[in-house]
Each structure stands twice: as structure tokens, then as C-alpha cells.
Amino acid sequence: MCTRMSVSVQKITEPVLLGEGPHWDDRQQALYFVSIKQKTIHKYVPASGAHTKTQLDGRVGFIIPVDGTTDQFVVGVERKFLIIQWDGEEGSKVQVVKELAEVDQDIPTTRINDGKADPKGRLYAGTMGHEESPGNFQKEKGSLYRIDRRGVVKMCEGVTISNGLAWDLKEKAFYYTDSLEHKIRRYDYDVDTGEISNKSYIFDFKKNNITGFPDGMTIDTEGNLWVAVFDGCCILKIDPKLGIISQKIPIPAKQITSVTFGGPNLDVLFVTTGSMPIKEEQEPPCGATFMVTGLGVKGHPNVNFKLP
């Protein structure tokens, strides 16, 4: 493992209960994220430090801008994929423009969790099992879905907590996590069709004696994965070809939920966290959003959702 002395971790927002799904909108130079259990969507503008939020009518798993718009987003609310309109102002009203789909209609206890647009703007998002008590989930009730012009396609099932999506076009790879597997999956990825195949595992948390669970992740331009470790107080930089940890970034919160690259040069790593009292109280700054600078790497631009 190596550490760079120049790495800086800075808190940029006040805590929320379960921050998730950070998405950097290059056009607006703004970070969007959600607080799932508080049913809120958030916007943070680094240039001004402005942080605004508003509430939806259900638990929201992710927020992604709709391509070509400045005020429309695709969100996953409970088990529905919706297009909403929000002006980004504090507490302002959200209008549902369109319902794209409702999934898991045969398992009404699940909810949508992490979601991202793939390099072509198709939506990939998964569901997770009902949390029967804090940290105790119904097993293998969720699925991973893709939404594009062909409609909704179930890509895999038997998932407990759908998380962590990343694509590597050079390697024709799709990386994905079911958090309770304690592993990171790799699939062959066809960028033209969006299909995935040939599941394998590129990293095992238990075999590497990593405390915590793999949560959200992103990928840098060199093909390394940056993985949020829930219950682990850190982010891991993992080389998926070698299956090794090349860097560990401590974060002053226990429940690290997701990461994405952003900023004008795409060299800032934004980190969402949670403050849920699962085993004990999580005092501030737990639940805050952080930015990590000085990593010496860059990410790819986040892709906005292209309406089918």
C-alpha cells in the first residue's frame, strides 16, 4: 500500500442520515446526491459552497440528470424509475414528468438502491431486500435492471444489496457489487448492446481481511476502482487486473457509501457517507459529504441519462 502525503480530505456538507449516489454534472459544475431514508435529493456547487435540497414522496436511491436538460432528472423512488423536474432550489416543489417503469412488482418489499448511466446513457440500477431490523436485510430478493429504448431488462437476480457500478470501455468490463457478497464482480460488457456476460470476481474483502462491506464505487482513467467501504471508515483503490489494493484513504466517518470523480478537472473525489445508528450512534461528521484532493488521478465524466 502507498499513501501520498498531499492527499486532503475535507467536509463539504452537513451530515445526512444516508447519503448516496453522488453524480457530478460537468455542465453545471455541480454535485448531485441523495439521502435515501430522508427522501431528499441534494445539489452542491463547489464554486459557491451552495448546498440545496428538497424532498420526494419516497425513499430515493439515486439522482442522475437527463441529458440535454438542466432541471430534469431520473430518480429511483421506492420501486419506480421516474423523470422529475427540479429547479435545484432549497425546498422547491418537484414535479413528476414521467414514470418510466415499476420493477419487482412480485416482491413489493424491495426498494431501488444505486443507479448510474452507462457510457451510452442507458440506465443501470438495482434493488435491495427489505431491512427487517438495522443492518439485517432480506437475502437475495433484489435484481439489477437496465432501462433503454427496448424497455426494462432484468440483467441479474438473487441480489441482496445492489451497489457499486462502473464501466471500463478499454477492457470491455462492467464492475458490480452485491454488498453482502463481500466481493466485487466483473462482467464482460458489450457497449453496443449494453449486455453483460461471464460473471467473475476480481476482489474478495474477506480473503483480504477488509473490515466492512463494498458499497458504491467509481473508476479512474487508468482503470483502477475506487471503492467505498461501508463500516470500514475508508476508500480503497483496487487494481482489478491484479486484484490488489494499491491505496487506502481514511475518511472520518464509518459508513462510507459511494464515490465519484468531479471538479473542473475531474480530479476531485466526492464521497458520500451515512450516520445511521446501526450498532451505535454515528456522531458528526458522520453522514457528511467529503471531497478528497491530491490523489494524482482523474476520473471519467459522469454520463447523464439519455431518455429512450
UniProtKB/TrEMBL annotation:
Residues the record lists as binding a divalent metal cation: E20, N163, D215
Annotated coiled-coil segments of the chain: none
Positions with a binding annotation for substrate: R111, N113, E131
Keywords: Calcium, Cytoplasm, Hydrolase, Metal-binding, Zinc
Binding note for cofactor: Binds 1 divalent metal cation per subunit.
Pfam entry (one): SGL
InterPro entries per record: 6-blade_b-propeller_TolB-like (IPR011042), SGL (IPR013658), SMP-30 (IPR005511)
Gene3D superfamilies recorded: TolB, C-terminal domain
Compartment(s) where it occurs, according to its Swiss-Prot or TrEMBL record: Cytoplasm
Top-level enzyme category: hydrolase
GO BP of this protein: L-ascorbic acid biosynthetic process
EC number: 3.1.1.17
Principal place of residence: cytoplasm
Keyword Hydrolase: yes
Reaction(s) the record says it catalyses: D-glucono-1,5-lactone + H2O = D-gluconate + H(+)
Residues at the active site: D215
Molecular function per GO: calcium ion binding; gluconolactonase activity
Domain called SMP-30/Gluconolactonase/LRE-like region: residue spans: 18-274
Obligatory cofactor(s): Ca(2+); Zn(2+); Mn(2+); Mg(2+)
GO terms for cellular component: cytoplasm
Family statement drawn from the similarity comment of this UniProt entry: Belongs to the SMP-30/CGR1 family.
Protein name as it appears in the record: Regucalcin
Protein species of origin: Parnassius mnemosyne
